[in-house]
Amino acid sequence: MAGNIMLEVVTPDKSLVSEEAQIVVAPGEYGEFGVLIGHTSFLTTLKIGMLRFKDSGGGERLVFVNGGFAEVLPNKVTILAESAERRKDIDVERAKVALKRAEERLAEAGRKENIDARRAQAAVQRAIARLKIAGTRRAA
């Protein structure tokens, strides 16, 4: 099926993406999924990871998403993310510091009761995802 699908990426703070895409690939809670124009409708949760899409000109774009939901309709994909960043907006140094801090907290979680291991693990996942996206040599 030829044609583009509308992609909207929205956080509580802003609308990050609102453009047509040839394909959208998102990090679903139960695995990565891809969407083309005319896809069957569904709603799913997202995990921390990389949202990829090809813009209408064929350029690949990358966006970090921090969980949330995806609504897929035959002509539109809406991503409602807790937070999201385009590749070009990721602060690599900040992500490296966050990764180190989160790994230290995770290591302490087994020894100290006041450390939430689940939160520390999520922080590690967010930092790793940001660094992976920032290090990818593709268009932002």
What is the structure about, briefly put?
The chain is an alpha+beta fold and 140 residues long.
Characterise the protein shown here:
The protein is α+β, with helices and mostly antiparallel strands. The chain has 2 domains: 5-87, F0F1 ATP synthase delta/epsilon subunit, N-terminal (ATP Synthase, domain 1), CATH 2.60.15; 90-135, Single alpha-helices involved in coiled-coils or other helix-helix interfaces, CATH 1.20.5. Helices cover 26% and strands 44% of the residues. It has 2 helices and 7 strands. It has helices at 92-109, 117-135, and strands at residues 5-10, 15-28, 31-35, 42-55, 60-73, 76-81, 84-86. A 5-stranded mixed barrel has the order 1-2-4-5-6. α1 (92-109) packs antiparallel against α2. The longest helix is centred in the C-terminal third of the chain and has 19 residues, at 117-135. The mean pLDDT is 90.
